[in-house]
Amino acid sequence: MTEKFQYKVFKSKPSFVVVRCIHTSCSWRVRAKKLVESEYWMVTKYEKNHTCPTDFKPVRRRQATSWVVGECVKRKLINPGRVYRPRDVMDDMKRKFGVDISYSVAWRGRECYLHMLMDTNPGSVVNLEVSNGNRFQYLFIAFAASIHGFSYCRPVISIDATHLKEVFPQAFHGICMYHLLNNLKTKFRNKTKELEQHYIRTAKTYNLQDFHVLFYTLSSAVPGVKEYLEAVGLHRWTRSHAPSRRYNIMTTNISESLNAVLVKVRELPITALVNEIWLLCQKWFHERRTKAAGCTTMMSKDVEMKLEGRKDRAQAMGVICADQYTFDVVDGDRNYCVDMALWTCTCRKFQLDQLPCDHVLAVVRKTPYEAYDLCSLYYTREFWHETYRGVINPIPHVSSWTTPQQISEFELQPPDVRTVAGRRRKRRLPSMGEELPTPKCSRCKERGHNRATCQNPIALHPTDEAGCSGSNLPTHQPIHPSDQHSTPQL
Fold first, then answer.
1. pLDDT per residue over 356-371, tens digit each?
2. pTM value?
3. d(Cα 283, Cα 229) in Å, to the nearest integer?
């Protein structure tokens, strides 16, 4: 490519290959043969000088294939913080090799990646959706290690701006407690303090009786909120009315955390973005697998700490035995009924979290029951280890890839998008009612701008509030930024 010549394969057999210049009268050629019982080839003949006319050197190179381009620019993608678009690939190839490549070649420098991902990670699911013109639309990837680990996780999926109702039509679809609160703040702007104070407790409570009391208090403090929340559906945002277990997952913080990790790599090309997600999952699985292997307790560390705190509170509770399985637990001025045969407590925390509550642990203290036997398997050390037992294997170097012919010949085109005038938006659109942090200027200490864009005048020296006795010097006046380089006059 550097010499601006092109070649074609003149003869090709399993044992030898002959390559010639595309000009018929040119003497440049290379002949090589395969070594016996080896994967190496030996060049047997090489005519290095080109005798074709100098004007027969078109700028566009047939040898600038997607594989060659990918090898030339792969080191540019090591840093996930760098945005490297197909347009940048085209510019780099032109500047370094003097070669003009099409946008499609720059895009297709990543084609066989998905096939190798499935080949090196058997059992993974990859679904690439394209339009009628073979233009990229969207991509779904589920690593085999993640599919295996999900069987040992609590059956709750957190999604953000993704519609999965058609995928899981029988599943219960709840609402993020935090996003609904932001919507309430927008609709009831004059009652934000009362909203935050009562709404969160109402949403998180387990007991239906406690819910009715808290919901009445919320409705009294914020007129109109009762009708709004009932229209949304109490079962969608409260833990007490949910038809299935939400455990302690009341928000989509898991999805938001992943979005924050990928905020810098979202602008990368599709393959680079997928590769970064793959590297992150590989790293996370290894770290969590190592951490789970070092666990020496029956339950995970967080669950053990939670059980210890509940055991301490259970010490002050009284237990009255009704029969072999039914117990009356006195907690302050309230009584709770615990049924050890059905694994229930009237506080409902035991059955909704599948973890012993304070009242159940009070019964355990008085009976032969074991606390660990009353915990769900989801919290055990074995399930924790099984969740991350799978390994996300690395993808080998492109030179060792073996892809079927129909995949290597498939030409995936870039997405057909309309370029909007102006600077491209990089930050996500905030949710309704979401309060974004405003910057604070380190120069004038005001909010709404930073030091680089500050236009406020500031004092040259701090004002001496106590004053100087016997001094007739006037107080320094604020100086405008345009006058900062001038000498102050006393």
1. 999 999 999 999 999 9
2. 0.66
3. 41
